[in-house]
Write a structure and sequence with these properties.
The protein has 447 residues and is mainly α. Helices cover 64% and strands 2% of the residues. The protein has helices at 2-20, 28-43, 56-77, 95-120, 124-127, 130-135, 147-170, 176-194, 199-216, 222-248, 258-265, 274-293, 322-330, 344-376, 382-397, 407-424; strands spanning 138-139, 142-143, 432-434, 440-442. The strands form two sheets. A two-stranded antiparallel ribbon has the order 1-2. A two-stranded antiparallel ribbon has the order 3-4. The longest helix has 33 residues, at 344-376. 44% of the residues are buried.
Amino acid sequence: MAEVLTAVAALAIAALTLFLGRRDVTRPAVAFGVVWFGFVALAQLRLTTLETPWPAGFRLLVFAGGLAFVGAATLAGGTAAVRRDAGVRRDDHRGRPLVIAALVLCACGVAGTAYKAHVLGGLPLLSGEADVVRARAIQGGEVVVPAWSTALTNCFYLGMWCALLALWVLRGRTPRVRLAALWALAAGALFGVALLASRNTLLFAAGIPVICAYLIARPERRAARLAWAGLAAGIVVLIVGGLFVARLAERAPQEETFLDRELAAQPLVLKPLVPFYINAVYPLEAASRVYRAVPDQIPYTHGAASLTSLPDAAFPEGKPPFGDDTGVLMRSPEAPGLGWTVAGYEGRLLADAGPAGVVLGSLLLGLGFGALYRWARGRPGVLPVVLVAYLAYYSAFMVYDNYLSFTVIGVFDLAVVAAIGALARREGGAPVAEAPGGGAAAAPATG
């Protein structure tokens, strides 16, 4: 009965959030609310053997934290939509600096990937044992891959975005051969992203351009909105589900995995959805186990679990092993070989300060996301649009992990985007936005 009531309440909140925010789903409150409460409802199905009943306190916390974020983000960000006044226009940007930036960034990506391949002993995607190779990044409890190498490998998706932006700017102004070369460069950069076999990074690399395109596209046509939703869902299912299955398939053919058993136990119509289901609801399952383990099994970290992206110098006693602790909690004879180490954004906040940390952290995150969204609304240039895309992606991604745990690399990305946007912008370009009818309109003043 508790599962039914939870599912109905969560679905109602998700549906109401989507209805009220349908004109611009990139608003943090909308992107978070729809995904968070939608997945909470999905988790009540209990389709796999690994899932356990949620404690009553955790059920209340799921709603309290989620509603706190939605309310705070709405209060700080307002209800006006960025989508109708995104200040990016083709005529205000030059293609040549974007092409040069794409080439330089891709070269940096090659350097970073070569270094990581040296440290890890191979490229995860091409090794045949992606998880084994990726696990070598942590040895003796210490991360052996420095942050600067991650900044370099991130240049692959930054280069891909530059190539895609150059394609948009140069469309109809340059020979098709050059456009084809840019498409090839973008595809090569995406392959570079895939070499490290990270579903999260690959989804991020593909998702941000889709969100940016959604922001600057015409918002009136219902068919177009449905097409954007279908494209986003297709990317998620392909990358999250497809790569998840592909990595598990690298095991020996005779070795039965937990996914094999779960697939065998499901009706034929549900089998294709099981990988996506696992990725959607296991963060919540892990968070419920963290809820039961804090503070007896997992001591309070007093904020450190959510701030692991800070330099090692900020942690004189070492960074808390939250991922390892979560992995231990998720181990089960029913799921051999499953290395699940994330517990949603609430899991880290629970480790930080328990239920009070979840509510307070949700409020602070919501206020921060909303304030950044309000700052970006109506401002001209590439950076505000990309920033909104980041906020939308991270808001939806919070069902998986806490944004604060990888904030530093996001700041680096946005700094690169700001520099490239400034270099590519034409001198004297008017701060204009695409009007709803497709023409140019002056960008509204910000306040």
